[in-house]
User: What shape does this take?
Amino acid sequence: MLGKIIKYDMKAMNRFLIIIHAFLLIYAFFIRILITGRLTANNVHNLGNTYFLILGLTVSFGIILLTCVAFATSIIIAVHFYKSTYSDEGYLTHTLPVKKGTLLFAKVIAGTIWCIIDIIGLFAAIYIAAWVPYVKDSLSVNKALLMEIFGLGSHLGVFGSIAFYIFFMIAGTVANVILYYACISLGQIFTGHRVFGAVAMYFIVTFVESISCLLIFIPLGLLNTQTVTIETSTTLYMSTPSQYMLGLLGISLALMIIWSVILYIITYYRLNRKLNLA
Assistant: This one.
């Protein structure tokens, strides 16, 4: 039953999401073939102002398009959860012979899959449009610095750091999906204004999460550039950018997991004990 629910949710979200991501990739190919593909180290100074004006406009529109696609993906995932769980469609969903925990788990998996597809699509579009020889050569000049900044030269090694970033990305997508579902579930408290309640709860929850992060980061000295020590003389702020980056992300990951568990439990409780369909 778990697989069937995931398959149904994926199918319900596929139609529009496939269209917008396909449009994004087509636009990326358009930029690559007609604009950025012409940019080389040999002719960069000979293309003229008109070329760079067009380049600037297309890149600006591309950034807007990337943002819209990412935002639309999140909205579609959230709306589908609301419609299939708390609206009239929810009556059918909750008649299925499946436990509420299984239902919620399936929806988290489906939402996470589409979030990961979205991230892959965004990176693919950027790669197609921007990864031209001129950009490669420009980045290769600062390769050592970039590897240090992103922690690829740390004690974890290149593959270890990449694996950590991939895990962080996956954990972040799961956390975002759970956040959407939790805010929608908490928004049902506002009878008659459920959508407004869900949006309000999103801002409230994210604000509380941000405050909790600050309360952890400030004592640890992660928001300044000075070395901070505690009673055990353990240095919390590492001296290199890669150590700082990985340390910051490591603590962020721990807080993200804690908040995700809390919000998942709240969502499950609302579904299992406080279900109130529109």
Summary: The two ends are 25 Å apart (CA to CA). Confidence is low (pLDDT under 50) at residues 227-237.
